[in-house]
């Protein structure tokens, strides 16, 4: 593949690290202690340590202070990641982790608590043991997890390969709980899904760029599609919120033979980060996006669009064109903070604007989700959402007459086989439109 741009990406990342180190070459300790607010923070910590009614956890207090400091910026792209979350993400980004091979999700979308199995990977430890989609977690190694979040349960379920984790699950339609003793294994994370459609149309979806192997997996999928007879390609970046810059560059470069890919603007200084190599796939293609396509997805879509390589089909993208530095902290956590922004080959800012599709197509794969909350109802009163005479959702008012009400979109069962796309062309007009646009290009090229 394009080794030159792997090197370029490494240089860009190294520059970011140097930027971080340069910022912290100053000693901020004395500067911090000179401010009344900082001394007040230390006084507050000391008062809680010595005089609070109950014992306090130092880490909880300090992490709360960090989160409060970052929250004061009111910037969604600057935040603190706990040590457990940072370690879990590092595993995922490497392309593999040690666990049981199941994807977890929350049962309650309001509280994010209560965990069930969304997907079981075929051939993985969970699948071999008999765990099924829809199973609800009750205990993990004897610990009650019924009120935990998916990430908290995942931390308990994951562990070194070869070790055993004991699960107690509730299966819908079954009165008695089911138990499993599962030996953990190494689970490969596949972030590319593919399928061969009619008329030689290859379909490849990238679910994330936060996987160091995503370009490698994409190339393998495209090569297999071409071997099976694909003569054109739909690159689906819908719901892909981005990830690593170098993976975005490599994906765009895989389809370009010339032209710029992305520029970076930092405090008034704009510089080219990457240009295309001379090799790349030349089959006709379109890029499919929606309102949730963000960051690296927008870099790829913008590069292919502005270089005239592919038409972009779908919705206006999210507009997440800023980039973040990741600072490892001494407690194992991470500080993620905004530091610069990305520009398209024509030096257009992605941030807050996004990528405008050449052909608009509404993403109608999932029903519209409507949410409402309010007060003033009688305690226990039933409140309903009615749209065009149809009841879409209901809720019961609590003792204070307050209610939270939302409709649930249908969740389609994902494929149990990683890398195998689960498509429903009958209910995906955007994909159908992308295929139409692609085949029109093929016909024009022939004529």
CATH T-level topology of the largest domain:
2-enoyl-CoA Hydratase, Chain A, domain 1
Provide the CATH architecture of the largest domain: Alpha-Beta Complex
First CA to last CA: what distance?
32 Å
Strand order of the largest sheet: 10-11-12-15-16-19
Low-confidence parts: 1-25
Characterise the protein shown here.
The protein is globular and about 80 Å long. The chain starts with a helix and ends with a helix. Helix 9 packs parallel to helix 10. The strands form seven sheets. Strands 10-11-12-15-16-19 form a six-stranded mixed sheet, with helices on both faces. The chain folds into three domains: 282 residues, 2-enoyl-CoA Hydratase, Chain A, domain 1, CATH 3.90.226.10; 93 residues, Pdz3 Domain (Roll); 36 residues, no CATH class. It is built from eleven helices and 23 strands. 30% of the residues lie in helices and 27% in strands. By secondary structure, the chain is an alpha+beta fold.
Summarize, please.
With 447 residues, the chain is of the alpha+beta class. The chain has eleven helices and 23 strands.
Features:
single chain; alpha+beta; 2-enoyl-CoA Hydratase, Chain A, domain 1; Pdz3 Domain; 27% strand; disordered N terminus
